Amino acid sequence: MGRWVIVFLWVFWALGAGAAHAGEADLRQAFQKKFPQAAIESVSRTLYDMRGAERRNLTQERGAQLAAQSLEQSKALAVKRVRGNGKRVIYTFEDPNCSYCRRLQKELVKINDVTIYTFLWPILSADSVAKSKMVWCAKDRGKAWDDLMSRGIAPQNDGKCANPLAKNAELAQRFGVRGTPAIYLTNGRQIGGFLEAAKLEQALVSASSK
Fold this sequence. Notes:
7 helices; 28% strand
């Protein structure tokens, strides 16, 4: 009989100022005694903070912080559009042939005082790739994207310029994005795929109040 391969979580429950401490080696040894035939493949740490009735997943929070930093550093790879004063920020991953992305476009135009960074991520077809390249090669990328998604008017160029599509795909993969559209706030939180303007507005207000 083959050996089991076990992956388990190393969990800390932080209660107020106190914390339970256990080393990875101790956990491995204890687990191996109980399951001598098991092969432990990895041990990962998950942190929680318990204060009163509140429980926070600190690992998840750290992941969001790293995502926020990565999005901020990757803005040059995105199509930028500014509405009003542009003080609020949304990041999106979109495919030009995605029907929900076109629906999202109709909702985004209803939101004021926002800057939208759209990472072109053409995953549906070769035509999506071609259109994404043409948008990126346009003199005014924001207008080219708006024209394409709102009116179906494709940019008039050959799409032959340096583009960030490969880097955008790597970014989407790093974040675990599974489809388009995908919407992120500046705090690194993904707030969903397609959302109506009212829910987008609510998410922006909630993010700015924290």
